[in-house]
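step=predict obj=Alpha-1,2-mannosidase n=761
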Amino acid sequence: MKMHPFDFKRTMLIGLVAVLLAASIWVVQWAVKPSSTPASVSAATTLNPVAYVNPFIGTAPGGSHFGTVGNGGNTFPGATYPMGMLQWSPDTISRLPGGYSYGDHTIKGFSLTHFSGRGCMAYQDVPLMPYVGTVTDSPALNGTLYNSTFSHSSEVAQAGYYKVQLDKNNIKAELTVAALTGMGRFTYPASSSSTMLINAGGSAIRNTAASVTINPAANEVSGSSTSTVGCGSRHYTLYFVAQFDHTFTRWGTWNDKTVQAGSKDSQDARSGAYVTFGTNYVPVLHVRVGISYVSIANARANLVAQHPGFDFNAMRAAASQAWRQQLGAIAIHGGSSDEMTTFYTALYHVLIHPNRFNDANGQYLGFDGQVHTVSGGHIHFENIAAWDEYRSQIRLLAIIAPDATSDIAQSLVDDALQGDGHIPRWEQTNVDSHGMRGDGGSIIISEAAAFGDTAFDTASALTAMVNGQAKVREYFQDYATLGYVPADCSESAAITQEYSNADFAIAQFAHSLGQQDIYQSMLQSSLGWRHLFNPATGYVQPRARDGSWAPNFDPALMNGFVEGNSAQYTWMEPFDLPWLFKSMGGNKTVVQRLDTFFTHVNIGPNYPEAFMGNEPSLEVPWEYDFAQAPSHTQQVVRRIQLQLFNNTPGGLPGNDDGGATSSWYVFSALGLYPEIPGVGGFVIGSPLFPSATVRLAGGHILTINGGGANDRNPYVQSLALNGNMTSHLWLPWDSVKNGATLTFTLGSQPTSWGTGASDAP
């Protein structure tokens, strides 16, 4: 860390060191804690997983357009920290939810906040843009004047670091981050007019308020940006402080169409600031940025608490080390370089969200609009996309980041206690955007507990799950009375199925707490989806209030469903598959139907086949196991891996939704999948890699050996658990949580392994 040679008195120096030490100790408590690492695998062998992260994966279309915004992963390539507060990344001109399109060649700014893989616009707050020249036109009205072209050949994207050369003024931009702050390093040509634009009113969704204040004496710009949460209508305010290591020679602000040279303040929804400095002798400018959702003072305090000074390389190295520690929770060996990169980039995407919401002093803004303080050593999280994440992502986090997962659960509980009593469905900043459908937040909490992460207020969680349903569940009274949501309500069948999954998960959670009355009630309620299965058609379909079936049913149509159709949703109750399969005519019929369903693996929402680019289909490939046909699961999963995921910008099959799609890939490559909501355990597939070790809580290790594993050998010939041969297709969490070894023997031809009646889950 570089320090300027100030002439402190000895006593003042001692006091400053003490303050900084205390702050650094406090901030360390906010680092996302992975599972503890035993000495025997402390180095995760010598593999550095950071070398296998390609943040460009998901920034280009991954297939045909299916109605999803951006037609791809909607990820971003910029600098981010594991579950950190900032996501500092370039924004290109195509206006995508991730802010960046690989097909673009023009950058309009580097904004501080992003959501990876979202399907609607969000964040992209306070873009900064380097420039050389005089600011005469307002960037609010004539932003294209300050855009710059770039070439992908000049880009470098790594975990925690991003670099690009801007063609317009020959400026090199580099970005890195810490848990609460970020730093930019900008190399300008020699000039007395080198400038930085700070667009407080430049969020992705039109700002409702913004402010900037320039303090030339401190070489600082501060302000706020108020915008609207993605897929919602509620507002949030981001506060920021940007500190520069160059003296300002000129400055000014803009307000809508007006530019005022020499102005130090502006307050308007389309406000921004510019500062100018000389780079004739020192061409490299450093900018430290802190943000907060509480106050400007907290944003400034975050800067003091983390990496004070302008040592860019130190912050970059710390970010890389943080990613190495997190990604090292799973060590894989074997496979090609591209397969390793696809795997570790998927794991990287899983670990971007949710995000810390509290500042270095522990403060965060609650659902009641008041400032609260999280308990020491814990994190309050935001960006909890429950509809997407409950299907596999939270289950992966529960295994490899148990402390963080307990904090995620507690965050949802605190949101309920500080709000109107319901568990949020799609939590962003300090509001529930109510994005998508269902009651996924309750499932997330149930799954954290199912995988042993119970360091949260479980009693209050269950109370909010039960008593808050009317606040989060659309058409709640209809569901409670009829057992299903009737067809005159929008997306009725999908909503019913989501509630059934949630009720089953809540039942399991209640059972774990000894609340048998709630368990029995919610278990019965979870069967409501059966009302919508029509034995005459063999599909789930919308049903009227009087019990009649809605007319003009077609399993390929989206009527009554969300981002999918009946052919895709009919499989979406994995906790009740024995009943479904019996109602369909038995296992033989089910296997034939599934084979037809997987004729195509990513057909989109308007055909009666698989749509693996979206969440409702994620669990379906594993359902062959329940029909005593595990070789079909093994073959279909391998097809999906090889056809839809790869080490290219188009290497994701659809929106990554905060890492949800990527988490499916991680589990599939390990040969396991947590199929049932609210239940700790896995169905068995087949591993893609010859060797994998997973770091569990308490220093335990799950070892997965894939003898003969490669692209062409998906079929399980045999499996041993801790040296004992087994053909069971369900692996309970209790059997591996204290460490275990799975030894697969794989081949190119299917066998009868796992096909016995007693082998099915």
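step=describe
Residues 492-512 form the longest helix (21 residues).
step=end
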